[in-house]
Amino acid sequence: MAGASAHVGNGLGLRLRRHRQDHRAAGPGADHRRLGRLEAGRAGRQHRAGVHLSGELVRDGRRGLSFPRDRDQGPLDRGHRPLADRADTAACRGGRGGRSREDPAVTLDSLERADTGIDYVARAEALAPKIEALADDIERFRRLPPALLADLHAAGMFRLLLPRSQKGAELDPQTYFRVIETIAKADASVAWCLGQAAGCAMHAAYLDPPVAWKMFGSDPQAVLAWGPGPKVKAVAVEGGYRVTGTWSFASGCRHATWLGAHCPVYEADGTRRRDPDGQPIERTMLVPAGEVAWTDIWNVIGLRGTASDAFSLDDHFVRHDHSVTRDFERECREDGPLFRLSAMAMYELAFSGVALGIARAVLDAFIDMARNKVPRGMRSPIRDNAVVQSNMAQAEVRVRAARLYLLHAYDEIWQALRAGGRFTIDQRITVRMASTHAIHQARDAVDFAYNAAGASAIFDSHPMERRFRDIHTVTQQLQGRLSHFETVGAYILGGDPDLTFV
Predict the structure, then answer these.
(1) SS3 assignment for 23-43
(2) What's the farthest any 2 CA atoms get from each other in the chain?
(3) Span 224-331: which CATH code?
(4) What share of the chain in percent tops pLDDT 90?
């Protein structure tokens, strides 16, 4: 995979270019024009090299299975972790020459650059036992506890995709995925909040540097959260906007320092403001968390700890330089390869990482239980049941395959971006397909284990119960929509798909 060309994204098992040519012959739609403008803005820029992810594969001790691994990590430390955890957590570290696992605390001073040797995966592993011990409290209070928040901040977990210029980690996708997946094995709500905050923090790259520094660089506990709002507006006035509306599903909003309010922009006369191509303009307005009105809406079956509540603004003034157009190339101030990926692509990666982390934890819990549980009316443990054995093997291989394909896709794209390429529509389609597939393969694996576990899994005290509810909440979110496969299929077949969420 090393030295891949800018077009390597087409080598992921689908040959999309010939279909794209057929599609273009029919004339691109508005969504294609929008993405085309994004891609065109990337041409000719000078790009800073990022973390090198080699194509070297390493054995993980599981009868020849191999996983991608950084070239400069040093020897694997497999220890005595569960079956499917050994290579996954050791395989790819965030820092070069990472710190010891016994030293999880890290001050923000050491986060000024991401290449100072910080091993973010090891830090996530060090935090995981404490997170899992707090899972019941996170669920009960529908919040991340203050003490845990302090530990997450100290370890830099809210700065994973923040630009290095703002004292962020600016991680490569593979390392970022492994951090999120590791945390998700312990508690999905915490991992979800970190993934949401990371995608939001990427937009520091689109702010004027002094404004970004005020929001992020100067505040070691900065967190940006946001969510959609169906009936909202920003009216353009001198120096900024008057913003009105209610926004919900703002995961992590209760521990956020800033909130983002996505708005269509209107002129003073009530007409929509449009760009030079005639397209309606939308901007995200950034306001201090203390300036909004809250509504507690998050009484849900899963991911309860994310506190994805609603907030409101009423004719609230927001300065123009405190607003961004999301993923708009012309406003991006950073030139690293991470910022040639879209925030959407990193949300896809994070939330599929949450799903796969849940699945891994559930399968491991089931393996432990199946060795000992003898169901009522039977004479041997569950593990001796031929149907369970077959389904276990299929669940295992599907989760591993979905995970590996997802990481392979992002690795090839990352190599192309590091080589100066841009994030193409073909590549966007690939990661949309890979991430949605991973989420649903994870769900299917959890369903198998939950059903095979019998009545034991229905109790609050069982490790599967909360995770079963969590995975079925993940699939209900935008990233888990089955309609994404329709989009991918239409594109492959040369149709004119809606690329809004690509």
Answers:
(1) HHHCCCCHHHHHHHHHHHCCC
(2) 78
(3) 2.40.110.10
(4) 67
Angle at 191 between CA 55 and CA 456, to 5 degrees: 105
Mean pLDDT of 4-18: 41
Q: If pLDDT is split at 50, 70 and 90, which confidence band does 457 have?
A: confident
Structure tokens that stand for 374 in this block = 């003898």
Paired tokens of 500 = 């809004």
**CA dist., res. 477 & res. 227, Å (int):** 12
Torsion of CA 40, 45, 51, 54, to 10 degrees: 60
Amino acid at 444: D
Length of the chain: 502
| Distance in angstroms (rounded) separating the CA atoms of residues 474 and 425 | 25
Q: Where are the domains of the chain?
A: 57-217, 224-331, 337-492
CA-wise closest residue to 82 among 316, 340, 368, 356 = 368
Q: Round the average pLDDT of the chain to a whole number and report it.
A: 81
420 closest CA partner among 35, 37, 49, 40:
49
Contacts 24+ apart (CB under 8 A), 16-25: 16/426, 16/429, 16/430, 16/491, 16/492, 17/426, 19/491, 19/492, 19/493, 19/494, 20/425, 20/426, 20/491, 20/494, 22/494, 23/491, 23/494, 23/495, 23/496
What's the pLDDT at 316?
98
The region that residue 63 occupies, defined by phi over 0 for left and psi between -120 and 50 for alpha, beta otherwise, is left
Choose among 78, 185, 86, 74: nearest CA to 119.
74
**DSSP for residue 389:** H
- Dihedral, CA atoms, 322, 327, 331, 335, nearest 10 degrees? 120
Rounded to whole angstroms, the Cα distance separating 233 from 242 reads 8
Please tell me the least confidently modeled range out of 56-65, 171-180, 202-211. 56-65
User: Quick one: tokens of 485?
Assistant: 């496969």
Q: Which CATH number fits domain 57-217: 1.10.540.10, 2.10.110.10, 3.30.420.40, 2.30.30.90?
A: 1.10.540.10
Assess if CATH 3.40.228.10 describes domain 337-492. Answer: no
